[in-house]
Amino acid sequence: MSAMPAAARLLACAALLWPLAGHAAAHRYRYDTVHSQIVFSVSHDGYSRPFGRLHIARGWLRFDPDDWSHAATELDIDLASLDMGDADWNAAVLKPAFLDATRTRYAHFASTSVERTADKNGILHGKLTLRGVTREVDIPFTFNRQARTIFGLHTIAGFSATAMLDRTDFGMTANSGSIGRHVSVWLELEAIREERTDARESADAAQ
């Protein structure tokens, strides 16, 4: 019996992999940048812990509610979107001593693994790049729900997460006597499931 031609072998492999590709596409999401928020708080000379807000610029998520073993995500945070409630305060925090948004406008997070700790809880392990410095971070999170919207337009996955960052890890050492070192972060995230099977995660990440 003659060997199977190369083209036929490729077609056979593609046929075997097609169901897997469809399965992966069914669990691919893009972040809803309108309904996703990042809020942070840091001590102001011990008097209070003011809040600031940042927006997600873009990002993708791979998540199967029944199997977290292949979950992954990447996202970009727009530092220029900073809102501290005052224009002068915003400008001060965006300067090189702190967020340095003119030189590096976006912070980038890429997951390395997901650890499931309970039915709805887990820890997202990954790397955060901020001001050109990359550090490993662990983000405890809760999977809130996955459901179709009330108008049936999209399938949404929603998450709540928290993190604690040391600003000096990213080179922000200015005003150590008046501005706290540790920054509390809260994330409220919604992601819209991609309906097209030809969508690619890299398309969002590369924009």
Please give a structural write-up.
By secondary structure, the chain is an alpha+beta fold. The chain has a single domain (30-206), classed as Lipid/polyisoprenoid-binding, YceI-like (Lipocalin, Beta Barrel). The protein contains three helices and nine strands, in the order αββββαβββββα. The chain has helices at 6-25, 87-93, 201-206, and strands at residues 28-31, 37-41, 51-64, 67-83, 106-116, 121-130, 133-148, 155-166, 182-193. Strands 1, 2, 3, 4, 5, 6, 7, 8 and 9 form a nine-stranded antiparallel sheet that branches. The radius of gyration is 21 Å and the shape is globular. The termini are far apart. Residues 13-23 and 197-207 have low confidence and may be disordered.
Secondary structure layout plus pairing:
Layout: H1 6-25, E1 28-31, E2 37-41, E3 51-64, E4 67-83, H2 87-93, E5 106-116, E6 121-130, E7 133-148, E8 155-166, E9 182-193, H3 201-206
Antiparallel strand pairs: 1-3, 1-9, 2-3, 2-9, 3-4, 4-5, 5-6, 6-7, 7-8, 8-9
SSE pattern, N- to C-terminal:
HEEEEHEEEEEH
> DSSP strand (E) fraction?
over 45%
Helix content: 10-25%
The major beta sheet can be summarized as: 9 strands, antiparallel
The CATH architecture can be named as: Beta Barrel
Distance between the termini: 50 Å
Structural class: alpha+beta
Q: How many distinct domains?
A: 1
Query: Which stretches are poorly predicted, pLDDT < 50 over at least 5 residues?
Result: 13-23, 197-207
Kindly report the average pLDDT value.
88
CATH-assigned homologous superfamily = Lipid/polyisoprenoid-binding, YceI-like
CATH class: Mainly Beta
The number of distinct β-strands equals: 9
| Rg measurement, Å | 21 Å
Tally of individual helices: 3
CATH topology-level name:
Lipocalin
Identify the overall geometry.
globular
